[in-house]
Amino acid sequence: MTGTYLPGAFATHKVEAMVKLLGLDPLDAEQWDFLQSETTQDLQAAPGSGKTTLIGLKLALMADAWTSATCGVCVLSHTNTAKNEITDRVASLAAGRSLLRYPHFIGTIQSFVHTFLALPAVRTKGVEVRSVDDTAFETAAIRLLQHPDYSTLRSYVERQRDGTGIVTGATFAYKDGELVVTGSTREPPFRAETASGKQLSHLKRTLARRGVFRYQDMYAIAQQYLAKHPGIVPAVSARFPFVLLDEMQDTSTTQQELLDLVFASSPTVMQRVGDTNQGIYSDAGAVNGSDSAFPLAGAAELPVSRRFGPQIAAVASSLAVRRPQQVHGAGPDGQVAVLLFDEATAIDVVSTFERMAASIVPEDTLLRRPPRVLGARQGRGNSQAYPQSISCYVPGYTPPGRPTAHRLLVDAARAAGSQWRSGADNHEAATELWNALRASFVPLTGEGLPALGRLERSAATPGGKVRILLRELLTHGATFDEASWGMITEQLSLQMQLLADRPLKAVGLEFTPAVEIAATVGGVPRSSAAVPAVRSVPGTIQSAKGETHAATLILECLEKTGKKFDVTEALRMVAEGSDPQQELKSVQAAVQLIFVGATRPTHLLVLAAHRNRSKRYAEAMIDAGWDVRDLTEH
Predict the structure, then answer these.
(1) Are 598 and 574 in contact (CB under 8 A)?
(2) What is the four-CA torsion angle of 82, 86, 88, 91, rounded to 10 degrees?
(3) Pairing, β 516-517 against β 531-532
(4) How much is the CA Rg of the chain, to the nearest whole Å?
(5) Helix runs in 146-216, H state only
(6) pLDDT digits (tens, 9 = 90+) for 262-271
(7) For residue 558, what are the contacts with CB-CB under 8 A and spacing of at least 6?
(8) Which Pfam families does this entry report, sorted A to Z (predicted)?
């Protein structure tokens, strides 16, 4: 990276000054090593080890020293949520804000592929892109299927159970220099020479000419573009002499292959950061057997978690499936508990957890980070096994429309307002509320709403007016009645539409009054005075990935093969001290999800399991210092 940034960017005195400016804790040796590294390397980071903070710090230092006007830093992640968290951090500093502009790029791998490879490839063919979205493609494909040209394909699809998936899942794959039409799993549903195969290919290519694509299509289009225009590779790699890839464990084989095509043979420095034990997506670990396996031998490691203490760290260490990992807890002295239930008491699990959280977690912490209830499955399937999913514990549970819409906006405003008034971290409070707003106003098309740091400040602009409304929510939101709430959300709706300059769908704006209950633990009132109740927020473990909670409840669910129950398997492994890597693949997959959920909380981790399966492990749990409660005995 000669000539792209000033030497000494990571000098000790500069790092210490930036740490002080950002109000961060002193760095340990492993963090110093990664921060000052200027060569290609991997970093295996335990949950809560400060990975995102470290990334933000490194980028801020790099931005402060950057000199090139044509070459930039490329920061890639997997979700808009993770990308937004990084942009919010760099936008909090004047120097960091330069990374939000040309020649730099911060975005998802998907958006990187779109911007530099796939969209240019499509445009060279004279196609105007209308949408890159699986749902939009499904709608367009079903509509086009009704055309007489596809009568054979339509007749076949109608005779199959869930046959429309053949059409809605039609995807491009790059093979032997050409784009071929396959199913969503890369397997062609028909032989290409059959009538149905020809019609499916024709339908897919017709939608492509109309500019309608699936997300996965763009990777195949990008591969073909690189093959036909090899000069693109040196151009892109020269543009980005430094690449930082966050959440590396979620990189799919297709994504890694494409990134290797662009950067592997170039002088670009690539630093990959993640936790292989949190790779929960089906294709995420597929690169582990390749030359790009993460983490590579000799990778740096951040083993110390500042999110939680030794109790929760011990659980995490026992459930590290993909790679042995001894997590050291340096956070709050949290507690681990097990709730044993049966069919009659499953409905009491969540309320018991909420009372435990109210008695154990400091109230301001609970308000800032409401308790979460997580399970691997949302709804019940056809099996008679019990319990299967979140809905077995939370009657009437309705999955959120989007993974980011975890809680009502009014709850987020109360929690952020409490933090704001405490003066603990005003920037974090404002950021949390803004992120909740972004989740509550969903763009129907195009990119999401900008990060907080990118909102205009002039009161005459929509961004400036939104900032004023944000401050109003932070200052007075906790005292709003229903009428006041209606007025401010009406103003927000107007300004957010203007800010987005596109249609928005509002979700989670309903007013709900703050409820007060007397929290009890084990039948004994916490105090004679009523205490504010902070409602728990249900959702999937997958949707909570990357979050930090004050308290987390993991609900036992049926794992995907329908033969075992995930929490019971995790309790067995902890009690027996078994080697996670020697377990069945199905058990490993189930326990890997439990690992992700169990490493979210700072103060309280609760595992719920059916007593008939897990009572046998109670003694070992008690010996480990866990709080074991049998709900059937109360």
Answers:
(1) no
(2) -160
(3) antiparallel
(4) 25
(5) 151-159, 164-168, 195-209
(6) 999 999 999 9
(7) 377, 381, 383, 385, 387, 388, 389, 564, 565, 566
(8) UvrD-helicase (PF00580)
The residue whose two tokens read 């499509």 is 122
- For 45-63, write each residue's pLDDT tens digit: 999 998 988 999 999 999 9
**Using CB atoms within 10 A of its CB, is residue 136 exposed (0-12), middle (13-18) or buried (19+)?**
middle
Looking at residue 535, the DSSP 8-state letter turns out to be -
For residues 387 and 23, what is the distance between their CA atoms, to the nearest angstrom? Answer: 45
Q: Collect all residues with Cβ–Cβ distance below 8 Å to 511 and sequence separation of at least 6.
A: 410, 480, 482, 485, 486
Mean pLDDT to the nearest integer, 446-464: 77
Distance CA 374, CA 537 (A): 8
**According to DSSP H, which parts of 160-210 are helical?**
164-168, 195-209
Band of residue 623 on the pLDDT scale cut at 50, 70, 90: very high
**Token output for 226:** 């690189």
Where does 509-606 have alpha helices with state H?
566-576, 585-598
| DSSP 8-state symbol, 41 | E
Q: What is the pLDDT of residue 527?
A: 36
Extract the annotated binding site: 45-52
Q: What is the pLDDT of residue 513?
A: 67
Please say whether the beta carbons of 439 and 508 come within 8 A: yes
Amino acid at 259: L
Q: Which two tokens stand for residue 75?
A: 């920061």
Q: How does residue 452 score in pLDDT terms, banded at 50, 70 and 90?
A: confident
> What's the pLDDT band for 627 if we cut at 50, 70, 90?
very high
Token look-up 């105007």 returns 128
Q: Which residues are annotated as a binding site for ATP?
A: 45-52
The DSSP bridge pattern shows strands 300-302 and 304-305 to be unpaired
Average pLDDT over residues 367-388: 86
313 three-class SS: helix
Find the angle CA(98)-CA(104)-CA(106) to the nearest 5 degrees.
95
CA distance 304 to 297: 20
Return the amino acid letter for 16: E
Closest CA relative to residue 624, chosen from 596, 610, 609, 605: 605
501 token code pair: 């300059």
Using the structure block, give the residue that is written with the tokens 């866990």. Answer: 626
513-542 pLDDT, tens digit per residue, is 654 433 333 333 333 334 445 788 899 998
Residue 614 CA to residue 202 CA, distance in Å, equals 54
For residue 16, the tally of other CB atoms under 10 A from its CB is: 12
3-state secondary structure 560-586: CCCCCEHHHHHHHHHHHCCCHHHCCHH
What pTM was computed for the model? Answer: 0.76
Q: Which residue has 């292989």 as its token pair?
A: 276
- In 3D, which of 546, 564, 208 has the Cα closest to residue 403? 546
